[in-house]
Amino acid sequence: MATSGTYTFNPSIGELVMAAYGRLGVRRTAITQEHMQDAKFATNLLFSRWTTQNGPNLWKVQLEPITLVAGTSTYTLPKNVSNILDAYIRTGTNPPYDRVITSISRTQYSGFPNKQTPGLPTVYWFDRQITPQITIWQPPDDAQTYTLNLYVELQIMDGGFADGQQPDIPYRFISAFVSGLAAELARTYRPELVPVLDPIALKDWTDASQEDIENVPLTIKPTLQGYYR
Question: Residue 7 CB: number of other CB atoms within 10 A?
């Protein structure tokens, strides 16, 4: 069997835009600067939706370490942090010791009477502002060095056409991108095709996002203590 032996298919956003317009019946020779400006805007609308739709997007997950300051509860996060998935406190160095901390709501944090009493941080409140912040409780004491390690989901990078930019998506989402962009552009250029293209875009997104998971076994262990009291 003859095969290419390569794995280099990584089209630019401009090439994918051409493919999306093709689904609307817009020939490449008919595409104008206005078409491309609309496509750039639609691309970033699509990425905005993908950042919040059925997440997390695993390719946008990264570890964000924060060195904690004694007595300080609140820390500013980068603006491109969309969500916090996991958090743990690291103490010591040889060997380091990690302790998972869990999330609480604004209302739960508001109910703590001793917000400034230092100690070992055990919970955090993620304040999802335009510039997000994380507040931990208790604020760390000065007995040792604490590092807050966050697994965060970042928003998808902006899409543009300069220098043959590729979209900030993995190979498995390329088809979903073309389908989603075609459906987005149809709202402007071929509204009669929206009922046709929207289900295709949803299916391609669903197929890709269902594959974008960690393939690990799920264990559910009920707590039966109440039966034996």
Answer: 7
Question: Which residues, at least 6 apart from 92, have a Cβ–Cβ distance to it below 8 Å?
Answer: 144
pLDDT, tens digit, 9 for 90 and up, residues 91-139 = 988 899 999 999 999 999 999 999 999 999 999 999 999 999 999 999 9
Q: What's the predicted TM-score (pTM) here?
A: 0.86
Cβ density class 149-163: b for 16+ within 10 Å, e for less? ebebbbbbeebeeee
Q: What are phi and psi of 134, to 5 degrees?
A: -125, 135
Cβ proximity of 125 and 135 under 8 Å: yes
* Phi, psi for 137 (deg, rounded to 5): -140, 130
Identity of the amino acid at 202: L
Domain boundaries, the chain: 13-55+156-211, 58-153
Q: pLDDT, tens digit, for every residue of 59-85?
A: 999 999 999 999 999 999 999 999 999
Which tokens in the block code for residue 82? 């969309």
What's the CA gap between 32 and 16, in Å, rounded?
15
